[in-house]
Design goal:
This protein has helices at 2-37, 99-107, 122-125, 140-149, 212-216, 220-231, 248-271, 274-280, 287-310, 317-333; strands at residues 60-65, 68-72, 77-82, 87-90, 112-116, 135-139, 159-161, 164-169, 172-178, 188-192, 197-200, 237-239. The protein folds into three domains: 11-40; 49-246, Metallo-beta-lactamase, Chain A (4-Layer Sandwich); 260-333, no CATH class. The chain is built from ten helices and twelve strands. A seven-stranded mixed beta sheet has the order 1-2-3-4-5-6-7. The radius of gyration is 25 Å and the shape is globular. It is an alpha/beta fold and 335 residues long. Strand 2 (68-72) and strand 3 form a beta hairpin. Helix 7 (248-271) crosses helix 9 (287-310) and helix 9 (287-310) packs across helix 10 (317-333). The chain binds zinc ion (ZN). Zinc ion (ZN) binds at residues 119, 121, 124, 183-184, 202. Zinc ion binds next to loops.
Length: 335
Amino acid sequence: MFAASRRSQRILVGAVVLLATWVVVLVTPLKDMLALTGVLNDAVPAASAEHPVDPDKGYYLEELGGGAWFVSGWSHNTMFVVTSESVVVLDAPPSLGEAYLDAVAEVTDKPVSHLIYSHSHADHIGRADLFPDATVVAHERTAEILAERQDPKRRAPGVTFSDRHTLTVGGVRIELANYGPAHGPGNIAVYLPEQKVLSMIDIAFPKWIPVHEFAIAEDIDAYFQVYDHLLAYEFDHFIGGHANLGTYEDLEEQRDYVLDVRQAARTAVGEAPLDKIGQMQRWTPNPFVTANFGFERMTARCADIVEDKWEGRLAAVDVFTSSHCRRMVFYWFTD
Ligand SMILES: [Zn+2]
């Protein structure tokens, strides 16, 4: 009798464990799929809605004046300028691909004479092979990186510079400048003074927030400093490589957001009981787990401060603020 009841108990426990396992197996991918759709996230503010890409053409095109055009694929944005002689294009994103050629052909039949590399990253210049006859202009660090990569779709630049370089093509002046590795080595600002158009790729994401860790900024000090350099230009249009076509005010707003992250992380680190976390490490079997707990608590505190202020103003605040906070928590922790 006793043995039989023990056995039925074991069967019952086994069935419950099996059922629970299946619930986890089934529900976890469902939750992940739901998370991927974004239904669990804050709604995108109406003002942040991106320009509509024509699904048949595969691009969105907008005239900025003075021969300058904003062009966007599904995820990457760039620009080109039609001069009295030829066309100068910025970057060659694979996500835009051959649609870039169609976009240029929609407004001019002049040849593309110059291709400017904003930086070395393949997601922005990985289809440079689409413009085989163009002279490639880039920063010298970009040339060094590409020399190592030996990627036939990102050929070596024909013209390089170290600090500043002015390109004048068919009467259009294009000013290029490097302000350190704010995103990666060799990333440059591209400015059309007559058209009042400024581009710097992978720094600011107009009406959204930067992706992971300030768009994987190589040098966090250079990242914060670059906003002062960019806001010193006079411009009406800003092209950041992703999100929306921006304005001067959008760039100011993005600077305010990142400065808030910087300050909130400093506050979170200042408030954290670092001595107590240090003592806790002595009696835990894995002190790294305790350390990580401390860093994650500081990150969460920073994100709370920033999200309270910015949710509803910029899109994706609930998606990437934590990663920015985590980067800045480590920055201040070691400062
Ligand atoms: Zn990049």
